[in-house]
Amino acid sequence: MMAQKSATRQHKEHLYELFAQISSALANPHRLELIDLLIQAPRTVDELAALAEMSMANTSQHLQVLKRARLVICQREGQSIVYSLADPLIARLWIELRRVAQNQLVEVEQVMNQYRTHRNQFEKISSIEVNIGLQANEILLIDARPEDEYEAGHLPGAISLPVDTLARRIHELPMGKTVVTYCRGPVCVDADEASILLSAFGYPVKRLEDGVGEWQMAGFSIEKSGKKHKTKTK
User: What is the set of active-site residues?
Assistant: First the structure.
């Protein structure tokens, strides 16, 4: 017959149960995508649903799971409820989880190449190299994400040129510098598409795989426009 567990043992097991609440909340691909999106900017349920191509009901359910695990928080802004990450450590947690998956699962690399078909077409540049190039005024940094994500936080000196507006605004860019594109990070094709277009117009292009989360993890600061979250109108 098993001896009764000591109070110390019970407390230890309770701690692991609490730790497991976090991993349980993360153990869903849709919730991971929602966290990835919230790294970029605070969002309403309908915005997240549209970006993640999920129903409002499913998106709300996933957000409630993340909220119960205290990974996200929400606040009312006018008629809308806006969600954001509860702590910058949540971004680090997702990024490190993704890196572990890339290191341990060979399938990640295979699927990444299928998802980002132009992934290896352009030279990659590191955050450290970008920081040095910015200080030396040698590169032109393009943020290919939607404008509201740029306003919520972007790399210093970056120009907001969402990929869907780049074609009609490309004439605004000066020649003479190496153009570096970035978007939400490795699980995003916007910077790839921007690089293709820029290259077609004769710009020398490099691709920064990092997004704002990885940039901050590397120890660099971001800039914000100072504007509050804006609910999109249809």
Answer: 183
